[in-house]
Design brief:
Layout (H helix, E strand, L loop, with lengths): L5 E14 L2 E9 L5 E2 L9 H6 L6 E4 L5 E4 L3 E5 L8
Protein name: Phage protein
Amino acid sequence: MSEQKYYVKQEGLIYHRDYDGLSDVFEVYLDEDGDFGDIEDRKAFTKQELSELRDGAFYQSIGNLYSEEWKNPLIEFVPVPVESEEE
């Protein structure tokens, strides 16, 4: 069984674009470079990968005894659905 992966969405940040009077609303997600951008560029990460990205700015596993976790309060983890394997 593989480790759960997550998309990282910037919490509460929704951009509005205005093109000739028409509004476009979109959420921003973490891409493979560790930058936030359009949903089309999002990348799925394991918690381990996130802890290594930007020196743990998004996620950290703290302590060995209790395995506590810290998640940046400005982001939201969006679980990536595990694809069922049909035989």
